[in-house]
What does this fold into?
Amino acid sequence: MYLGGRGLNSYRLFKMVKPGIDPLSPENVLCLANGALAGTALSMTSRTEISSLSPLSGILGDGSAGGEFSAILKHAGYDQIVITGRASKPKYIWIEDDTVEIRDASDLWGLKVSEMVDTLRDIHGDDIAVAGIGPAGEHLVRFATTMIDKYHSGARGTGAVWGSKNLKAIAVRGTKGVEIADPETFFKLAKEDEEWFKKNEFVKKIYSVIGTHYGLLAWYPGWKYFEKYLGPEELPEGIRPVDLAKYEVGRTQCFSCPVSCKDVYKLPRWNEYGVSSEYESIYALGANNAITDTEAILKMEQMADEYGMDVITLGDTLAMAKFLYEKGIITDTDTGGIPLKWGDAETQIKLIEMIAYREGFGNKLAEGYRNFAKIIGPEALKYSYDVKGLSRGWYHVDFLNGIFTLAHATSTRGADHLRGRSWAYWENDRNMDPELPLKLLEGGLPDYRKDPVGALIVSERACTLADSIGRCKGSINSWPQAVPLVWKYPLFKGLAKLLTAATGYEFTEEKLVEIADRIYLIEMAFNVKQGIKKKHYAVPFPPEIINTPKVQAEIKRHWEMVDEYLKRRGCDVETAVPKRETLRNLGIEWVADEIENKEFPEWDGPPLWPLDKYPRGR
Amino acid sequence: MAHRYILAVDYEKCTGCHLCELACSIKHYGVVNPYLSRITIITKPEIQASTPVFCLQCNDALCARACPANAIYFDEKAGAWLIDYNKCIGCRECVYACPFGAISLTVKAEPIKCDLCGGDPECVKVCPHGAIFYGPEYEVVRKLKKGKSVGIVYEVLEKGVEVPAGNRVKEAEEAVKTLYRIWEERKKLNI
It folds into this structure.
């Protein structure tokens, strides 16, 4: 029905989370799931999906994290862990195959992520995997992440949910492995899939060498709070791939991945190591804050991992604060006398620490992006470039035929780049293999230049399936990575073959499309219960230009696209609620009983606590 | 003199992805389970150390010497020390005896070790970085020499340098050049 991973989590959350609850209360539910093909010999099936009602956005919040946890959890015999309620004292969970224990974590509480993982490895051995939180999660920072095996993070604020449940970590050892229904066929297909990556020039010479730093040249990082987006020739010294390579000492990857997209770097100034300085951290913490001190940006990325915070929300919130300070909307009175200047790396490092422990001005920033703007006031909120509480900057609707704006509007976890956006216009695929786009179009992906809405829906299916089988969608987002064997059996026929061989159940492309739509619609229904209305599909623009005829025309076009999208998804075009008929066709009519003709209070972000009620300080 | 075929690893190339373990277990048992693999990866990504541990097929094998049941024998055809499970009494002496920890125990306390897949090792084929190789002794040793000497040169050069840069920057420069070349090529294709 839901495959596993994200699909299984979203189903569980729809069943278990009541509308209108506080995400940081014991009523919230935290799900970790590894996906249908996790831990198998199909490479790159290393993702753990962590889902909850998000304390950052107040709607569905899920994050996909790499590492080894997913595979080892599967090898211990589990598909999903569901956490409910709240412990009276700090606890951690120890799983060894069939044995599950809830243990005292008072010695772990307060530890940074790498200290926590090392301590647990000392106790249980070095062949375990660990998921858990750092100080930011303990202090209920609303964009705290679930951290896996030290360096891999799942965002949308699930770290704070662990903190609110007094749960520090889950450690697991799995010795049972995975049984495959038809190992011969499965292994043959898996090897074929891996061969593509081993032979591809782009993968070997760029992806495996500079990883997502490639994006600095190809993905137009935002500069100075999205004042502009930098082209490859505009990149300042300090944040070019060659500058970052100066600090690199090696490369690493998640379980069963042939790519090694992650860099291991050394910080001579601090005499410390860090892992995986991805594109997002360089753009959000660096470029968007006009910081070009390479080593300082890497240090901030490493701090975000150690405290357990999402680099994108962290960087964008800091950039917004600097922007509002420059405008005079926040002053020294708000910041406690700390001046907020573009390019000031030293202060930013201090602020990141203050956020993790909710100290001083950090307490406000820790509310995260839109919530931060909300407590500053309506003037600030105008500059919150978010959809449903999450930010990916603002874009013109005519950019890439409306794909960006529509993708941000329709993502079921708020504005996002990993719900379908890159796949709809084969962002990186054409660089990987010039023939790929043609194969995709022939395989049934609508051409975004003619049918952007159709292209996005098919791409959202691809991402939903990748998240539900536990496959990496690619740190350089691409079809062959998200959808195994897409280059040979487009679009989902190769995946159907793999799933059939792995499980022994008959899968077809049609069946997979149905599963993907079932998952997506149940996620939309979950958000309806949290008060999402049609108007929340609006996309942001800077207030200075929003009333210009050009932008007004763009907004009109955007709504036309949203209407078309809702129609094709089988939702009511006026209310954006999934129709009973659609849900019936997907075999989940019971979902309609919970949302049809019911009034849910309109969404306005998560309920925020008075600032002095949060755990603060060290 | 005919040279033996041996399995060897270039530690600098291994990134610790575990794909060899998965391939090994599926080849021998048809299941995916690193604990049933005859090659084990010990990793510590933060210092970029990952070490595949596997049987080196010693000339004078301590495991065979230690075995009280004479269950470990050298198979000329495979070029490997194999375990005769009809004789094995499950005492684990071989596990203790191996200086490299190359013999693993399954959950049923059955010792398992590399059998070189009868001369066509699966781990070599699956390794994405070409870190594991298999071939005639002299050729493999030659390759290892080259790898080692490069390693030593780096170590000498790095003394007194805080960041082991140089080679990484050059590789990154090459990657950027390749990207611009790919962009040029794609422009012509009009997609």
Summary: Chain A touches chain B through 63 residues (CB under 8 Å). Chain A has three domains: 5-173, 200-383, 399-595. The two ends of chain A are 45 Å apart (CA to CA). Residues 509-529 of chain A form the longest helix (21 residues).
